[in-house]
Design brief:
The chain is mostly helical. The protein has one domain: Orthogonal Bundle (Multidrug-efflux Transporter Regulator, Chain: A, Domain 2), CATH 1.10.1660.10. It is built from 6 helices and 3 strands; from the N terminus they run H-E-H-H-E-E-H-H-H. The chain has a 3-stranded antiparallel sheet with strand order 1-3-2. A hairpin with a 3-residue loop joins strand 2 and strand 3.
Length: about 120
């Protein structure tokens, strides 16, 4: 869903298992209160909640947030239209999503290689 040109503007997703709401906010360039609102509007977005209702997002959540951001801010969808696009059975799987995943895997593998070399 992210166009390659816009993807370069967002920072790469680090190789961590969980991210705080502040980290996700920086990675996706969306304010924390917007992320909390999107949790109510998009059923796919379900961060793990731990002590004191603290949210911990996984890599998949960050990718979904970037897709939502792209649909709303770059492609001009409404909240309802973006929800329908993400949940629709006839929604086409976008090749750019797979490209994003592959790029993230490459970054992770390069990080692992650096650790192994040191």
């Amino acid at each position: 869903m992210l166009e390659p040109s816009q993807n370069n503007e967002l920072p790469p997703i680090p190789g961590k298992r969980y991210f705080t709401i502040g980290e996700v906010s920086e990675l996706c360039e969306v304010k924390p209160h917007v992320l909390r609102y999107w949790e109510q509007e998009f059923p796919q977005l379900k961060p793990v909640k731990r002590r004191g209702n603290r949210r911990y997002y996984q890599r998949q959540d960050v990718i979904i947030i970037r897709q939502i951001r792209s649909l709303l801010y770059e492609q001009g969808f409404t909240i309802g239209g973006a929800r329908q696009r993400l949940t629709g059975e006839d929604a086409k799987v976008d090749q750019t999503q797979f490209k994003l995943l592959i790029k993230q895997m490459i970054v992770e593998l390069e990080d692992v290689l650096k650790v192994l070399k040191s």
